[in-house]
Amino acid sequence: MTFIGKLSTQQRTGAVILGCLALFAVAEMFLFSIDGNQQFLAQAFASPDWQAPLGRDQFGRNMFARLAGGLRISFTLSLVCVVTSAVLGVLAGVAAAWRGGWFDNVLNFFANTILALPGLVLILVFAAVVPGSFVMIYLAISLVLWVEYFRLVRAIALNQVASPALQSSMLMGFGKFYLFRRHIWPALKADVFSLAAFGAATSVVAMSSVGFVYVGLKPPTPELGLMIVELFPYYHEAPWLLLEPISLLFLIVLGFHLLAGKAR
Amino acid sequence: MKRILLNRLLQAILMMWSVGTLTFILVRLLPGDMAYKIAAGRYGDDAVSTAAANAVSAELGLDKPAFQQYLHWLWDLLSLDLGNSLVSGAPIIVELQNQLSFTLVLAGCAIVVAALIAFPLGMFCGVKADSGWDRASLTMSTFVRSQPVFCLGLLLIFLFAMELNWFPVAGYGGAPYAILPVLTLAISLAAVSSRVVRNSTRTAVNSAWFEFSRIKGLSSRRAFVRHALPNILLPALAFMGIQLIGLIEGVIMIESLFAWPGIGHGLSHAVFARDIPMLQGTALVMGFLFVLINALVDVSYYLLDPRQQEVQS
Fold it and tell me: Which segments of the protein form a coiled coil according to its record (chain B) (predicted)?
């Protein structure tokens, strides 16, 4: 477990927070068989009890199940977004630095086109194409996120490609993959990890923002941003209900930010 | 200087093209027949007939091949003919002008308030680095940064509008309505930039040249203003450029949250109502705002840092 050994205290705290949240999300799915969408109108705004440890919402739905569901959606989204954008961004960045020429120019043009527009605007425009689609939100967020990896990786890889160490390995006839693994990846590793953690936080925030302005996933999906906007009108009846998704969102983002380590 | 502005102009053109293309693709991807939908929007759902749809189709050139329509679409965009809203029927340009003034007020006030919070706080914490004050400010900043800006807005609404009843919850009707949105945006901006100011202040105050300026007999005040301040401002300003995305995204979220009738509010409503011309217009203005503030940051960086001018001239 050398990887954990290298983390700072701050990063470990982040990992512990995320671990607890993930445990809650997964354990709820396997240990309890509560349907988060089942309504019990007579029990609307019921205070927490053994059946529903986190209370019930305006339709009497079990908040415990809904929050765990919301966490699962957020974690799934952040995972697929980070993997997609990191793989694409690193590949494109290394390829652009290595090939150079028109290939580099085309990729740079593409990256600049995306950077010319604030990310959330792009995500909102995509969300308008197919309303309520998880896939569309995922595509939009990944499209915005890969640019960061691309720019960073390209800048670092340019130095590595020109380095004497790589040149001599190349002269000795090592393959491209070996050169990447031996010379380029070690220089990228730390930064890509920290970008990935920030990217995960960004994607969670982006999805909840889209949900919050009501153009993201559709009810009755237990998406955190959507839950916040749905519970907002009932603040006076049950303030704790509204605070639950807000604090979960806060913990996820805090966890990823701590895990990322270095300040941005 | 010229090169900076030229680069930003290029960015603006790129942005226009991508927004135009995206919205064009969007229109074609929408389910259902375009002509019927526009006819429904214009004449009401009950009055739609094949004749009406055909008339719309002929008028807007929907029967032409896609590539021709695309060129036509871009040409309209270039001549700033943004069309009419599919929902209200009013020309987009008029609505945008209306909304833009609201957005500029919000963004402008927020930047000023953010600077008023971030610079004094950051400099104070930088001079007293690692003290109790510094730690408290780091904790606060982490707390604010760890939540989406709309959650911060909600917390302020609970506190100031619902519990204390000091300010109205949302809407627009005069200065009291502006306080909470401006404050939310300003706090979220200041949370990050105060730390940047703090770090550069700390570097400046602990540097050899700052110590030298003290040794040669300048008062601590004079040494700070003459020597430390310019070196604090530059990194902070450079960082502002990066933070702009946060400002624009914050504007979208906060306007939606507080029902502030600006561009961001218009944008999220256009997405919700799938009002494509409006969507295109608001996205364009957001993009232009982004490019414009970027250019302003570049130019002020250039003017403030004499080294930049030497390199280029």
Answer: none
Spatial distance between the Cα atoms of A66 and A60, rounded to a whole number of angstroms? 11
Cross-chain Cβ contact A116/B145 below 8 Å: no
**Residue A41 DSSP one-character state:** G
Tens digits of pLDDT across chain A (264 residues): 455 567 788 888 888 998 898 888 888 777 777 777 777 777 767 777 777 677 777 777 877 888 888 899 999 999 999 999 999 999 999 999 888 888 888 888 888 888 878 888 888 888 877 777 888 889 999 999 999 899 899 988 888 888 888 888 888 888 888 888 888 888 888 888 888 999 999 999 998 888 888 877 777 888 888 888 888 888 877 788 888 888 899 999 999 988 887 644
Please say whether the beta carbons of A7 and A25 come within 8 A. Answer: no
Torsion of CA B290, B188, B194, B233, to 10 degrees: 20
Put simply, the answer to whether A116 touches B15 (Cβ < 8 Å) is yes
B279: nearest CA partner in chain A: A125
The second-level CATH assignment, the architecture, of B92-304 is Orthogonal Bundle (1.10)
| φ/ψ of residue A56, rounded to 5 | -125, 150
Residues of B whose CB is below 8 A from A214: 268, 272
CATH homologous superfamily for A7-31+53-259? MetI-like (1.10.3720.10)
Domain ranges of chain A: 7-31+53-259
Query: In angstroms, how far is the first alpha carbon of chain B from the final one?
Result: 9
Of B12, B26, B151, the CB nearest to A249: B151
ipTM greater than cut 0.85? no
